[in-house]
Design a protein that fits this description.
This protein has 243 residues and is α/β, with parallel strands linked by helices. The protein is built from eight helices and six strands. 42% of the residues lie in helices and 11% in strands.
Length: 243
């Protein structure tokens, strides 16, 4: 039987390995096209942020290391996370997402402007399938596959995750690849993405949930409403708590 000291030591080791993974991610130069684009955007900047220093590097995951819910996005926004250095921070998509996470109890505040703004996540970890901002927000399949091992290692270190919320079809596909890489069998035919789609895999049981991406294209047109994304996050909480 493990003691409290054993558990503390294991958690300390896991936190150290997460920190090592973060350091490796932010120093990545594996995809020349993405490196060139993220650095170009950081140099030229958007007029509204001309006085700010851009991060201009890959973006690590962020949140509660004891999370039971993993939220998986596509990639950093050029003038969002590529500017602020924190995933889903500083853009309209992040504003929509964090407002929902606050309403559903996963975040201590409804806004996220920069990395030192006091935002804390409870029971959730946010990451992306691709860690660098891609041109036209469209990573290539090769870039996706080059970056996916980072998410796999992250998933394995976040040992308490029981639900993965996929923000859009790209994230859904990446999660299926992630699950395959972690040894979980994927049903055939391959499950299709949809808002509210739910797929349980295991053992141990991990559930995949789909939601439309909180992009302006979706939120401004009403394709994704606050009530819709709240319902998905509430379902994630129910599943993660075993209810």
């Amino acid at each position: 039987m493990s003691t409290g000291r054993d558990a503390a030591a294991l958690r300390s080791e896991r936190l150290a390995r997460l920190a090592e993974l973060e350091a490796e991610i932010v120093d990545c130069f594996k995809c020349p096209r993405l490196v060139a684009w993220r650095e170009l955007v950081a140099r030229e900047k958007r007029a509204a942020f001309a006085g700010q220093a851009y991060w201009g590097r890959p973006i690590p995951g962020f949140g509660d290391p004891d999370a039971s819910v993993l939220i998986l996005g596509l990639a950093p926004a050029a003038h969002g996370a590529n500017r602020t250095g924190r995933v889903f921070t500083g853009d309209r998509s992040g504003d929509f997402l964090f407002a929902s996470m606050h309403r559903t109890g996963f975040a201590n505040q409804p806004t996220s402007a920069h990395a030192g703004d006091g935002l804390e996540l409870h029971g959730a970890w946010i990451t992306a399938a691709v860690r660098c901002a891609p041109p036209a927000n469209k990573p290539t399949p090769t870039e996706r596959d080059t970056c996916l091992p980072y998410a796999l290692r992250e998933f394995e270190l976040l040992a308490r995750v029981r639900v993965v919320v996929c923000l859009g079809a790209f994230a859904w596909d990446a999660a299926l690849r992630l699950f395959t890489g972690s040894g979980l069998a994927i049903p055939r035919p391959r499950p299709r993405f949809g808002h509210g789609a739910e797929l349980a895999l295991g053992p141990p049981t991990v559930t995949l949930l789909g939601t439309f991406h909180p992009s302006q294209q979706n939120t401004f047109t009403g394709k994704l409403t606050p009530a819709m994304i709240d319902a998905v996050l509430e379902r994630a909480r129910q599943l993660s708590e075993g209810s």
